[in-house]
Amino acid sequence: MRIGLPKEIKDGEFRVALTPAGASELVRAGHEVIVEPGLGMGAGFSDREFLAVKARQGSPWNCELVVKVKELQEPEYRLPRKGQTVFSFQHFGPAPALLDAALASGATFIAFETVGQDSGSLPILAPMSAIAGRLAVQVGAWCLQKHNGGSGVLLPGAAGVPPGNVLIIGAGNVGANALAVAHGLGADITVIAKSAKRFPALQSIYKNVKFETTDLQKHIPSADLVIGGVLTPGQMSPKLITRAMLRSMRPGSALVDVGIDQGGIAETSRPTSHSDPAYLEEDVVHYCVPNMPAAVARTASLALEKAVLPFIFLLIEKSMTNAVKTGIQVKHGKVTHEFLARDTGRPFHPL
Question: Is 91 a catalytic residue?
Fold first, then answer.
């Protein structure tokens, strides 16, 4: 099979779905890998390294299987074609024009974010969520600095000065990784989740952290940094934070909405970019970058490749496991994912 790897054009996106090592595995298995020149430069993988493993340069959109990282950007809308499969993050829910383009192309779109949804494992999304969770504390601390519009709170505190308050919403992959970093900094942390199912495992590690399932409104006013780590696989993010809640926060507090690629959890959230990552609304600094792991593109690319490569081989072998089937969101001009159809008001066509 011919597998194409296009260079990403989304603002600040430097990740690759396959490094030269992954391309080498496919070539050794008898497949042809076509890479766009400059594909991996942003993640530290040179064209020379891809050519050394016998990948070829050319137009990746002439291949049967196109493997990329992010959803199509507007200049790419007309590139997919009938009979082709595009394997990447898709995030159709918040982007009607993107979904229209995918349906019009006649191609099949398999979404990283819902592969494995039937079992709840989400093997491709999981490592990116973990990285985003770790970054959330780092960028949240940046947002709190005065020159970024923040309140001037240092999360670890200082001698004789109490640490900042971090409120983490969600105890899943994003929340647990944000907790690890915030705890390492010495912040005062509260974790709120809809269910207490994951609390015992986390409590055994983090003794001084507060874990609750109570009303958000009780905790928002005292938070210096709020991290939104709620994910409902394959669905739009629930709107948990109202504008009124944000008004109750101290001016210069920060919100890092990790789920912005699925719409975000605050009614004031809107997508930003790595080149212009934050804005001030209701006197709260909002950080809403949909592709946060791109900031650490090399680490993220290595983690993504490890997750993606086994599924590429399944697609080559036409092995439609349940994990692969739950990733198929659009096929032959029809929406084939139930939650996507519901969230976008489109007809649902089961596979």
Answer: yes
